[in-house]
Amino acid sequence: MTQAALRDPVLAQRLAGEILKMAARPVRLMEFCGGHTHAILRFGIRARLEPKVRLLSGPGCPVCVTATADIDAAIALAHLPGVAVATFGDMLRVPGSRSTLMQARAEGADVRVVYSALDALDLARRELQRQVVMLGIGFETTAPTVAATIREAAAEGVPNYTVFSLHKLTGPAMRAILDAGEVRLDGIIGPGHVTTITGTQAWEFLPEEYGISCAVAGFEPLDILRAVRSLVLAIAEGRPRVTNDYPRSVSREGNRVAQALMAEVFTVESALWRGLGRVPASGLAIGERYAAYDARRRFAEAFAGVLYDAPEPPGCCCGEVLRGVLEPTECPLFRRVCTPAHPVGPCMVSSEGACAAHYHYGGAL
Fold first, then answer.
1. Rounded distance between C-alpha atoms, residue 119 and residue 183, angstroms
2. 20, 102, 137, 288: which one has the fewest Cβ atoms less than 10 Å from its Cβ?
3. Which residues of the chain have pLDDT under 50?
């Protein structure tokens, strides 16, 4: 279908009506992905389905879930002599405990904005006198491209390229939220881009272990509404399951080439998440085979002074928002102190952040 067809307002209204008729009781669904949050608010899906279907935002913003301590470490790397830190633009304004990468750059640190990890590798090739560190931010979607640059750098013998891997895995984060029991959920809208890589098989633990359904969705209004309908139908039938409502991009097996590349370059370890703390088996570290391209090992001095219990900004509720415990509009700083022009927390900084979505599209619509 074309993008216009996937935004057909008549069909969208019909789907919404079907969902409301099928919902025998109020249900609470969480969209994992920040891209879904923005689409849901932008197109008024939340307002159309409430109060029978409550849509809660989850931790699916990779910039937002990057811990304060890891931002501090990135800033420390940027201040090392002869080091250039390459990063996506969203990371520049994310606050650490005392500063941001943007402030570090203003103070003379070499911080470069890139559009892909390939740009960072090209920078290393061009500027051999500098050590180039790529901040590896993202979930399973971006991890394969970063892994590809590490393998390419090793094959070419590029001596001045490393990666500070902050990549995270989505499944363990969803487990952490469910295990915490802070919020009752009846179903999960699975992230479309992530599941293109992992396949829908990655979400089968939800019905098998937690008894709740997952419907993988694309990012257009009809994609999301079809996923919601699948979830409401599964709830009504009492048969938890995983459904693929994004078949034009997603399969059960996922992208086997990308999976193999990640397995070759990375090793799974625990990772620190903003709002969730340290989550077992949720991070991707660079494995022994490519240890020479691991910024943590090459620049160990930059990590020596990092405090891994660094506090959140005073009054910021970003952690609670990422867990679905609070709405952005329930944060006392929202719109009063924290705005896209003057963000206090990363959920207002990132283009995928829930607070930014609520700010731009009218709060709780």
1. 40
2. 288
3. 363-365
